[in-house]
C-alpha cells in the first residue's frame, strides 16, 4: 500500500513538473526544436512521399518543383508579379531573339513567312560569374585533382548523404554545362519525358539519341543484366549540331523551322545546367546502392541548395552561399503595390535562410498544424488550399471568424487551366454532320445545349464559386484572352449594360426546334431526343448528374449518363465513340497555342492520338492555327487568336465551361506571397517575420494552466481515503505487536 501511494504522488509530481517546464511564452505540441519559430526559416509540408525525381532531365511532377526550380537555374523564367506572364532571363543575360535561315543557310528577315524558315537559331548569352553551389563533385586537392574521383573501394564507407563528404568546391557556370544537360535529355541512362518533343524540334537530336543508345550498348557489354553500377557514359564526347557552345558564355540552339513557343521550354528545368563532374561523380560504384544521384542530391546554381534529405520524412533547402543575389522586382500588375508586393523593390534575394519541408500523410493534421502556425504555407506547390479555406469560411461563420483572427492571407487567381464539356465531332447527333444541312442543324443543337447548361450555376454549386465561367478556350493571363464585352460569347449570351447575360431557355428551345427537335422530339420520327454523357469513374457524384439532367429537361431533352472506369473512358475517347464528355487541360506554358491546339484538326484524338479530344475539324480554324503558330507575340497574333476564338464560339465544339481558381494560404507573417501557376521559383521572393511568428504561435498554443490545481485536488481526494486506511492499519499493527509482546513475556514468566 505504501508503494502504491508513493506511485500516485510520483505521477502527480511528474505531471506538474512536465507542464511547469513550459513557460507561458513557449508553444506546446510544436514539431520543431525550441526556438525554431524565431529563425529565418519558412516551414511547409509535403504529402504521401518524397519527391521522386530531382534530376531536371526527369522531373515533371508538381511536387518536385519547389526543389528543382529553386536549386537549378534554367535559362529563362517568368516575372514573379506581372500578368499576363512575361518571360525574363534567369541564368541567361538576356532573352535571345532568334535568327532565321532558309534551307540553304541563307539569312531571312524577321518577318519571313514561317513556311520559308528552315531553322531558327538562338544564340543565348550566359551571365558571367555565376557559381555552382558548394558540392563534393567540385572538391579538389592541393595538386588540382578531384578529391572524390575516383573513389577507393572503401571511399563510401560511412557516407550515405552528400553532407557526409567533408570537402566541397565550386566553379563557374558555362555554356558547356547547358550543352551537357541538353545532351543528357537523349541519354538512354535518363528517363526524360521531354526528349521526344525536343527531338522533333532541335536539329539533329533524334539521330544523336540513336547514336547514344549504340554507345550505351557497347559500354554495357559484359555487364550482368540488372546491375546498377555501369561505366560512365561521358557526354562530352561526340555531340550534335543542334546544340553547341560558341564560347564559355554563349549557347547556340538550332531549332527546326519556326517555333516561337520554343522560348517557353527554355524556362523549364529540363533546360537547367548539369556539370559533367556531377554526372561522373554519381556514376561511381556504390553510389546507386546508397541512393546517391542527381535524383536525390541535385547540383545547381540557384538561390537554394539541398542541405538535408530524409526520405519520406523531411527535406531542407538552405541558402546557397555562392548565389549572386537577384533584385526583387519593382513592377507588377495593378493592385500589387497596394498589397505590399512592391515594398522590397530592388532588395537582394533570397530573403529566407532555410525552407523546411516535413511530411504530413493526412490532410486534417496538415491543416491543423497550419492553423496553429507551425506551417507558414500548407504546401508550396499546391494552389487549392487557399480556395478550400475560402470555401470553408463561406460555409461556416465560426471558421470565417477563426481565419480572420489568425490573419490568414487567402489571395486567389484564375489558373492557366480550363475545364470544358466537349461534343464528339464524329457523333452523328452532336458532331459535325454529313451534309451542309445536317451540319447547320447539329450546330444549332450544340448552341441550344450550351445555353441550357448554366455554367454560372454549375460553378456556384459544384465549385463553390471558385472558378471563372469561360467565354472561349483561352484563359486569363495568356496573350489573346479577351475580357469585357469584346470577349463575350454572343452565341450563348446577350450583352446588357455591358455585362453578359445568358440567353433565355426560350431561345434555347427555338434553336432546338430549328435543329429538328421541337419540344425535345425528332420532328420526323417523334422519338424523344436522348443524349449521352460519358463520365469517367469518380469524375462526379450523382448530384451533378441530376443537375445536368434537369438543365436539359428544361428543353424536353433527356440525358443518359454512361459512367465507366477511367481506363474504359480513355478507350472510348481514343476510339471516338463518346458523345458528350468533361475534360480538362492545364497549360505547359502561357501561350494561346497551348490551348488552341486542343481544337486543331490534325491533333484529333481518335484519328491520331492527339489532344483534340472533341475531334473537331474546321478548315478555317486549322488554317488560322497554322498561321498563328508561326507568329511572334504582338497585335497581329492577338488578332488571329480572336478570329479563332470567334469560330469556336460559333461552331460550339465545346461548352467552354470554366477556368478554375487557384489560391494561396499564407500566414500573416509571410511576405511577398502571390499565387501563381507558371512561376515555380517562388521561394526566392518570399520572406517571413520570425518575431511575429514566434509571438503568434506562443499566443495560439500557450499552455493551459488552470487544470493543474484541479488535477492536484482530484488526486489528493483519490489518495486521502487510501492514506487514512494505511495509517489505520499501521496503528492496528503497532497495537497488535505490543499486545503480542506483553503476552509472550507473561508466558515466559
TrEMBL record:
The keyword Membrane applies. One of its GO terms (molecular function) is peptide transmembrane transporter activity. Keywords: Membrane, Signal, Transmembrane, Transmembrane helix, Transport. GO terms for biological process: peptide transport. It is found in: Cell envelope. Belongs to the bacterial solute-binding protein 5 family. It comes from plant metagenome. Residues 172-605 form the Solute-binding protein family domain. InterPro entries: SBP_5 (IPR039424), SBP_5_dom (IPR000914). PROSITE patterns: PROKAR_LIPOPROTEIN (PS51257). One of its GO terms (cellular component) is cell envelope. Its main location: other. This is Dipeptide-binding ABC transporter, periplasmic substrate-binding component (TC 3.A.1.5.2). SUPFAM superfamilies: Periplasmic binding protein-like II (SSF53850). The keyword NAD does not apply. The chain crosses the membrane at residues 704-723.
